[in-house]
Amino acid sequence: MARIRSSSAKAPCVYLRKHRKWPHSPYKTQWHQTFNQVLAMKSLKEAAAGATSQRRREEDPSKTGLLSPLVNSFSIYNCHPTPQAYHFVFKTLAKTSQLHDIPRVLDHLETVEQFETPEFILADLIKIYCNAREMEKAVDLFSRIPKFRIKRVAHAIEVFHRMIDDGFIVEAEICSFLLSSLCEQTDISSADVIGFFGQLRKLGFVPGLIDYANLMRFLVKGGYGNDAVDVLDQMKSDGIKPDIVCYNLVLKGSVDSRDFALADKVFDELLLYGLVPDIRTYNVYIDGLCKQGKMEVGRKMVASMQELGCKPDVATFNTLLAALSKIGNMEGARELTREMGRNGIGKDMQTYEMLIKLFTSRGEVLEACGLVEELLHKRLDGFNDGVAGNLICRLCRSGLTDKAVELIVHMAERNVCPGFGAWEAVLFSWGSKLDFPETAFMGLVDSVQIE
């Protein structure tokens, strides 16, 4: 007797057929890839052994090499060479005195492979070069560490410590390079950098002028001006005479930290050492004077530097202009720009933006418009649309909507967009003439606070 399957029994089967998860093909699983890599590694070792035997018979190093066997062995099994495979190749080349073939393998590792190279591979290779008295190649490889996708300097430091622990004498060039790389990092504390610098000194490393300058630059950039002064004192204790670059760094650190008494001391000291201040020295010192509100002293400093043969640049005048803008001194700003012209110094983007902001905030909108027109005529890049937008808003609030529209047209001709705030200000100024569709469109514009 035939059995008839009820509809209630059929539904689960339909569900199972729709949602059943069939086993993956073994050729797509991780274990299969690992197995292929094992087979490829075995093939590579056999090829290396054969190449070594051939080399011994023919005694011709030019006819052997392990880069091709490395690539071919893994290509046969449809997989990529592993870090362990490269490690094996390097060790084999070293044991068989084929150091000449290492650069080819290194270049392939750097330019072709995508994995992050384990630091122990490069550490062992540096040791190989050191043992072979190939110090120049060891230093070159150490300098190339970041190119092998080892992004953290901490890995390089680990390599450095491993070399020290294994009894290797590390060249001064490596210490300098590592210190320089460490000082370029943004996610490391000053205590770590200074601590590492102290470790290098204990190991016998004698830092030079550039090493001290790199360390001071890092400290000043990170806001550790007082630590930079300590480094300068240590530098002098070691018998190394600081140059003007070192003093400029320490001077900037003291000004940034608003330690103006220290800034005066540093400035007097560099003069006492017989160093000649350059434009950077004067600009930093004038910045310190302006931050103290000593505008007149700053202006006199500009005159003094000119008498000493150091011509001020646009950064010098921008520093003074920033101080005048902060207190809203329009007449002083006008006189300063005239002085720039007398000295043959043109305004840059920063100069224009400060002047436009100043005149706009003080209600001199037409003078600010003239500056915008001048800026657009010069076609300088990087104009802040917020500065122009604020000016356009001020024009509209002053009843000069037609002038605002004219300015927008000129900006559009130079591919400069004033921003939504400016458009909204123009629409609001014409609000009484708007019909319903235009009013609805205005509501789509992002709400912008008009100052």
UniProtKB/TrEMBL annotation:
- State the similarity comment: Belongs to the PPR family. P subfamily.
PPR repeat intervals: 208-242, 243-277, 278-312, 313-347, 384-418
Q: Is Protein biosynthesis tagged as a keyword? A: no
Entry's InterPro entries?
Answer: PPR-containing_protein (IPR050667), PPR_rpt (IPR002885), TPR-like_helical_dom_sf (IPR011990)
Keyword terms of this UniProt record: Repeat
Q: Which domain of life is it from?
A: Eukaryota
- PROSITE patterns reported for this sequence: PPR
Which Pfam family name is an example for this entry? PPR_2
- What this protein is called in its record is Pentatricopeptide repeat-containing protein
Question: By its UniProt entry, which Gene3D superfamilies does this protein fall under?
Answer: Tetratricopeptide repeat domain (1.25.40.10)
Which lineage ranks, top first, belong to the organism behind this chain? Eukaryota, Viridiplantae, Streptophyta, Embryophyta, Tracheophyta
